[in-house]
Every structure is written in C-alpha cells, then in structure tokens.
Amino acid sequence: MALPADFLPVDEIPTALRPALEKAWQRLSESLARADNVAEMTGQEPPSENWLALGPERRRQLARVITISDFALDTLVRYPEWLLHLDAGGELDESPTAETLTAWLGERLESAEDEAGLHAVLRRFRRARMLGIVWRDLVRPAGTDMWATTAAVSQLAEVSLEGALGWLERHFEPRWGRPAARSDGSEQRLVVLGMGKFGAGELNLSSDIDLIFAYPEQGDTEGGRTSLAHQEYFTKLGQKLIAALDAVTADGFVFRVDMRLRPLGEGGPLVGNFSSLAAYYQDQGREWERYAMLKARPVAGDLEAGGELLGNLRPFVYRKYLDFGAIESLREMKGLINREVKRRGMQANIKLGPGGIREVEFVVQAFQLIRGGRDTELQVTSLRTALLRLPALGLLPQDVVDELEPDYVFLRDLEHVLQALEDRQTQSLPDDELDRERVALALDMEDWPALLARLEEVRGRVRGHFDAVIADPEEEIEENGEAADEGGLSLDDWRALWCGELEPQEAEAMLAEAGFDEAETALRRLVGLRQSRQVQAMQRIGYDRLEALMPLLLDAVAASDAPDTALERVLPLIESVLRRTAYLALLRENPEALSHLMGLCSASPWIAEQMARYPILLDELLTPATLYTPADKERLADELRQALGRIPEDDEEAQLEALRVFKHAHVLRVAASDIAGTRHLMKVSDYLTYIAEVLLETVLAMAWRHLVRKHGYPLRRDGSRAGAEPEFLIVGYGKLGGIELGYGSDLDLVFIHDGDSRGETDGTRPIDASVFFTRLGQRIIHLLTAVTPAGTLYEVDMRLRPSGNAGLLVTTLDAFGEYQRREAWTWEHQALVRARVVAGHPRLATGFDAVRSEILGRERDREALREEVVKMRHKMREHLGGKSEAGQFDLKHDPGGMVDIEFLCQFAVLAMGHETPELLRWSDNMRILETLESSGRLPAEECQRLRDAYLALRSTAHRASLTREAARGREADFEAHRQTVINAWQRLLEPPTP
What cofactor does this one take (predicted)? Predict the structure, then answer.
C-alpha cells in the first residue's frame, strides 16, 4: 500500500530543507512498500496501515526527525516497524525506566546462544533505544531537555554493560568457573567504573564510554573445567565485555569503549585488584588522574564493591586542604588542548575550542579539585549538581551560574544535534549548507547566521568566566598594570632579585627604592631562604611553585605599609609551608589573599605566628567578606554543624581536627576585624566567647553520644531515663564566665550533673552513674586538650571545682550547693560571681542559677568580707604585681589595674546582693558596674569612670596580645584611669581610719 504524498506536513520545515524531506520520505515509502510485500507473503499486517493510523502530531514530529537526522532516517528505512513499536510503548514521549530496559534486554538475551548472538542482540537493542532518544531530543516532548537526553544515553549504557557482563559470566562459567569468594565471604564480581561523562550520567548522543575494570581480591576461580587466577579470569572477561560493546559488526556497535584512563594507560594491565589500584594512585597517581577520578562511578558488576573502592581512593582525589595546585594542572591541560586545537585548525570545535564545553567543565572541576576535600557537597560526579551548588558555598556568584548553566546546555544541545545527524562522534560545526540548515532547524534558530551569532555570544561569556577562574594571576597583574606602574618595579624585577641575578648593591638599591628601610637585612633574609637546606631539598613541583610565588609575594610585601616588618613576619610562614606546597599555590593563585596576608602580618606578629603554625588558616584569606566579619553565635553553631556533618561520626581524629581548624579560623576572623577596627572591644570578647561556647556545646554533645553508645543512658534522680540531650552542665568561670575571653585565654570550668549517682546506666555494658559522669567529664577534657596537627582547642583549668584538685572531677548539683553553703572560702564566692552556665541542659542550668543566686545573695558581715577580699588582693599582688619597670604599668596586676576593678565588682555583689538582687543576674564586670549605677549603689559618675578605665585597660591588653607584647603601658598614659580605680578601692575596701 502506498502512503499518500501529503502524509507528512511540511509547514514547519524551512523551504531550503523541503527537498531533503522529500528525498527522505521517498526512501521511507520505498522501505514501507517492501515491508508490505513481505508482510503480504507471510500473512502479516502491512506496516503501512499502522503508519496511516499515526496522528497529525506524530506525523509532524516524524517530518522534523527525518529531515534533521540521517541516523533516524536510516534506522527507520531499515526497520520501519520500529516506529510503531516505539510509539506503542510510549518510548517516543518518555524514556523507559532502567527496570523496563533491563527486562527488555534480558528477554532478548535469552535467545543469544553464542557471542555472535550476544553482539547482534545488543546492537539492535541499542539502535532501537537510540532512535527513541534521538527522536525525543529533536522534538522535545514535555519533560525532555538536554539533561534528560544525557541521562537516557547513560542509562542505556549501564543497562547494556550489565546485561552483557551477566551473559558473559553465565556463558563462560562452565569453562572458567566463578571467582572465589572474598575474605568476608561475599561474592566477587568484576567492578566496572564509568569515567568522564559516563560516570557523571551525562553522556552525549554518540559518546565513547571511558571505563576502568577492577576486582576486589586475588584468588582462583572455582567450579569450571579450568581454574584461572583472578587476574587472568577478569582480564579475559573484560576483553570479552569490550568486544561485546565495541566491536563493529553488520549491526554496527553498541558503545565505543576507551580504557586509556586505567593506571599506566594502554601499557598497564586491563584489570587491577583493589590493593594494587590503591597503591598505584597513592604512589604514582598524577594530577590528570585526579581530574579523571572526579567523575568515577560504579556502573556495572559489583556496584557495592565499586563504591568501596572509590571510598578508598577518595583521599587521592579530594585533598583535605584547599588545593590550588589543581589550577596549575588544569591550566597545563588546557594549554595542551589549545595547542592541539591550533595545530589541527579546530578553533570552531564547540567542545575543545575557546569558550567551549570543556571550559565550562574545567571551571566546575577546578572548584571540585580545590575545595572538594573540605566542601564535601562538591564530591559529586554530576557537573550540573556541582555547578548549582557553587553559589551556596560562596565559590561563584549566582549570576555567573545563571549564565554558565544555560550556556552549557546550549553548547551540549548543539553537540547533540551535530551527532544526531549521522550518529557520529563530532563537535565540529558543519561546512555543508544543508547540514547547517538542519542544525539551525533542530535548535529552533531562524537560520545559520542567527545560530552563529548566538554561539559567539555564548562562547564569549564562557571564555570570560573560564579566564576569571583559570587565568594566570601574573598575566592579570601585568595586564592591569599593577606590578609595573611608571617608575615602579615589575614582577620581572622581583623575579631577578629573588633568583640572585642582581649584584648585592643593585639588589639593595632595588629594595630601598621599593620602601625597605633596612634593605641589607631584607636581602640577607631572602638569600638565606633561597639558599636554605629546606629550599634546596624541595621536589621539582614544589620548587617551581616557590619560584612562581616569590615575585608576587615580594611585590605584595613592597606594597604593604611596613615592608621590613611584613617580610620579617611572612618569611617564617613561607618556610613552614615549603613541604606543603599546595599553600604556595594558594598564595600564587590569589594575589588578593597575599595583600590581606601582608596587612595582617604587618599589624600582628601573633597572627603571623598563628599562620605559620597553622597554614590551613590561609584559606580564610580567600573570603574577605567573612575574614573581617566574625560570625554571631547562631551562625557559628550552624557552620560547625555543617563542618562536622561532612565527617563520619566514627572518625574521631577528623572530628577533632575539624574542631580545631574551626576554632583557629574563627579566632583569626575576630583578630582581623579587631585590627581593621570594625569591632568594638566588647564585641571582640563577645565573639571569642561565642566561639568557646559553641565548641563546648558541641564537645559536650560528642562526649555524651560516645558514652551513651558504650554504656547506655544514666537515670535521673526521679528514676526516669535520661534523654538524648546531655543531662550535664559545663559552668564557665573567670574570663569565660565573665564574657571577657582574650586571644590566648584558658578555660576555667566546673562540671555538674543531676543524675542518680546510686544507679547504673541501661546499656549492654552498664556502669555506675557516678563513673559514667566522671568519664563524661574526662572525655570532654580529652576532646578539648588532645593534640592534633592543628594543635589543641583550649587549655583547661579545673581548679575552681569544689575542693579544687582534691575534689571530684564532676559533682552533683546538690553537692555543689552544699559545698558553697558550708565549705567554700570567700575567694570561691568571689569566683562564683563570674560563673555562668556555658553549655548543658536548660533544666539543670535553671537549678545552677538558683544555687548561684542563693549563695551570692546571702547577707554577709561587711567588715569581715572587706578584710577577706583585701587580704586575697594583697596576696595576689605579692605574687603577680609590682614587677613593672620604672615608668611602666602592669595593666592587670598593678594597683589601679584590671584585677582591682574585678575585685571591686565581686565585693559589691557579695556585699550588696542581698539588698540589690539585680546584681546577682550578671557575671561580667561591665554589666555589674552598669547595675551598680542604675540601682544607685554607686555614684553614676564613678561607675562611668570605672567602665571607661576597664575598657581602656582591656583594649590595650588585647592589642598587646596581637602584637606579642607584655600587657603593660606607660604610667603617664593611664594615670587618670588608675587614679579612678585607686580612689574607688580606697573608698570601698580600705579600712576606715580610727
């Protein structure tokens, strides 16, 4: 039966393409006629009758598809009945599920009796499915976009691989047997890792599939006519699997297979066991292999074992630190690609050329390689997923991602159309006018010039974003004229000085010209570093990074306010990272970070020492917005929760390290804001205290979970079972309790619980409740003081607990109250003034506050209290004060210093608390002074002067910490403040004259 000439609508087909449609329809009509003849001879229904039943919309789609895609046309000419099957199965409108595909392929494979049959089934199955994928990609039914196309192709590859592998295993089992079980008794199969776009689940229409084969353990096969070593068995199986997919037969191929990403490439073994792969990547893995492994994903065989393998390789792919060395590698790879593109005249290639697909991928993968070890949200194989997560991590602005994502989609859509023309792997724009018109139609562009204009616009944006991430910082500096202003020094000048190419007199003159006051000393320091044993012993990659950094560093040093000081303080940092050269790369790749480093090191030797001791703090220089803006307590808690959420709960070492890095980083932010003058002194102490509180809350929760997992929950005093929230208090004394922490403050702590000390925990390994709480306290101290590569969290002082070092480490709330009522000394009540709950259960905190208010609010003999307080102050002064040089004033301990103000406040609370209960509310000196004023207990003017004095003293002490100086000042500078304090002391605490 002949189909009518007007069977296909032509309204939507451009005039230039209608002759091509007519030729395509002629071929299809002839094929249908032949199929009808065969059907008539065999008594079957002629296909053309069912074609006539196709609705108008399906006919419109058919006209579009066969006009654009020779692959689709050739397939329908060869198998006209497939269109009806795909239509009936809904495959022209949506992709079948993986389960459906697996079932379809499994049914067909049952008929395959030998490898030739396997090959035929796989190829016809693939061709039919690809017809549906190309159809959907070109007509875009609802819910179909570029990402749906890539997912469908990837799913087809996975199903084909698994189907072929399963058939081969069964087919060769009688001859080769099955692999021996693993040491844990589990079955052992081939592990197939998908790499590149296959691993990402984003294959293009005519993509190769990059694979790596592996197997878990060595051994020998069992149950076959021949026993093979696992290496030989899996190699043979892998070779058969490759042939099943890659070999070209009369039916074509399934997928081209590329195995060159395996260790040692084409010269290496086809298959490796887990231990050999781990050893290879640890000892010999190269940077480009890290890039390749970003997208590795188990796609067939033993998927669980594949996940285990990739878990073991994750430290190779994702560094714990920020790895800016990855940018160098990507830059080198892109340079190689650019040279190849230029050599072969491939500038129009939309994948490899400027502003092409690869540049978008490099942008995203640069962030994954640099930050994936820390920001585990980026440890994903999908480019799209990683790209869309970058704004939330502060790595790319949202507007950049809003451009890159649709631009990438456009480039991939164009790539798919180019490949749909003939099922050929290509990313080159066509020269043929007819093909150009087809491509323009497929992308719904008016014509070829309009498509080229859109493509140029897209590639320009992509190239701009690529350059912003990957470009060489030296090139940017030179282009912006920042390093070679008129009359200034260029990076080449600094490079010549660092490399020793100048005579000493010439070098010193250059340093003097750049603003160094002690040019000879500066040159000596630089020569000393360059000729040091550490530098001479560096490996080539590290040495190259140092050579690349030093001109930039010297340029930044010279631009600082105090070049001599900046150089003196930054060189120890450089020395400390000579063996961790990723930090050299970080500084080279981020000139702005160098500038911030100079400013902070010039202002504070303490910061310089912290940076040299903990180079991971260099990461903070990358985000000035947060560097000079400390987080409030809520944000601190959220950041710490996210940081720990990326670490397995059973990895205590990593958790401890994360806690310490968190603390150092946020203290640095406080110090940076302090130096920049963006935070008032009171806020500086507030933020340092917030950091300690958030860490203590986290440490308490960690310790509680640890003990509960081992021993179960303790009982409350009423006999009920404790809950998930720790039934425990951490009470802060001293500077922590008074919300006055400094940069190097210890933590004075007391631990309190309110459990039933006579009972046992309810776990499988029960212990006495008293032992449970003691171990909880010990665990907290361990988490705070354990030494890791990032140091300790805090030094802890527990001597203020009841009975001091002779007392129990943890006490009940009742016992604490009784001790304070009956045994505590006056100085212990003074200490209680500055005590407050910093972490723990709200109900217990309310109980502690009640005990504290009761003790501090007791009426006391004022004269006896005065004698005790003065006696304690004199005792302290004998031990700690009076040691200042002439003209110098010890801010803390000399008469009129901070400790005198603290004692004044403590005396006031203990003496007046019973009459002025509002004094019992606060633990910090500033608000105690404010309350003394508002309650009328002290004159307002005197309270204001005391507050001014306290702020001035503390501010100077804070600055002394940052500049690594003693907490002293000139007597003349503090005379008025000292006199204020001394006058108040004499009026309130000196005994009256008889």
Answer: Mg(2+)
Tokens of 544: 């190259």
Q: How many CA atoms lie within 13 A of 59 on its CB side?
A: 17
Cβ-based neighbour number of residue 307 at 10 Å: 13
For residue range 446-503, what is the model confidence (pLDDT) as tens digits? Answer: 999 999 999 999 999 999 998 888 777 766 555 555 444 444 688 889 999 999 999 9
Q: From its phi and psi, is residue 4 left (phi > 0), alpha (psi between -120 and 50) or beta?
A: beta
Tokens read off for 187? 């079955």
Q: Which two tokens stand for residue 19?
A: 């002759």
How far, in Å, CA of 212 to CA of 265, rounded? 10
What pTM does this model have?
0.77
Q: CA 692, 694, 698, 699: dihedral to nearest 10 degrees?
A: 10
Q: In Å, what is the CA distance from 739 to each residue of 103, 146, 685, 690?
A: 67, 56, 6, 9
What is 622-665 written as a DSSP string? G-HHHHTS---HHHHHHHHHHHHHTS-TT-HHHHHHHHHHHHHH
The two tokens of residue 473 are: 């910082």
> How buried is 757 (Cβ within 10 angstroms: 0-12 exposed, 13-18 middle, 19+ buried)?
buried
Flag residues of the chain having pLDDT under 70: 1-2, 474-488, 678-681, 718-719, 880-884, 991-994
Give me the DSSP letters along 494-517. Answer: HHHHHTT-S-HHHHHHHHHHTT-S
Report the distance separating Cα 877 and Cα 894, nearest Å: 7
Q: How far apart are CA 596 and CA 583, in angstroms?
A: 15
Amino acid in position 223: G
Residues 261 and 220 in one domain: yes
Count of domains observed in the chain: 5
Helix (H, G, I), strand (E, B) or coil at 492: helix
C-alpha span between 748 and 923 (Å, rounded): 14
Kindly state whether residues 806 and 886 are assigned to the same domain. no
β-pairing, 191-194 vs 209-215, is antiparallel
Q: Are residues 591 and 521 in the same domain?
A: yes
Secondary structure of residue 566 in the 3-state scheme: helix
> How far from the centroid of its chain's Cα atoms is residue 267's Cα?
35
For residue 34, is it within any domain?
Answer: no
Same domain, 330 and 313: no
Strands 796-797 and 209-215: unpaired
Alpha-carbon distances of 452 from 54, 358, 464, rounded to whole Å: 36, 19, 18
The answer to whether residues 752 and 812 touch, using CB atoms and an 8 Å cutoff, is: yes
Instruction: Provide the domain limits for residue 425.
Output: 325-443
pLDDT at 419: 94
Q: What is the DSSP letter of 955?
A: H
Q: Does one domain contain both 365 and 429?
A: yes
Are 332 and 363 in the same domain? yes
Rounded to the nearest angstrom, the gap between the alpha carbon of residue 184 and the centroid of all alpha carbons in its chain is: 34
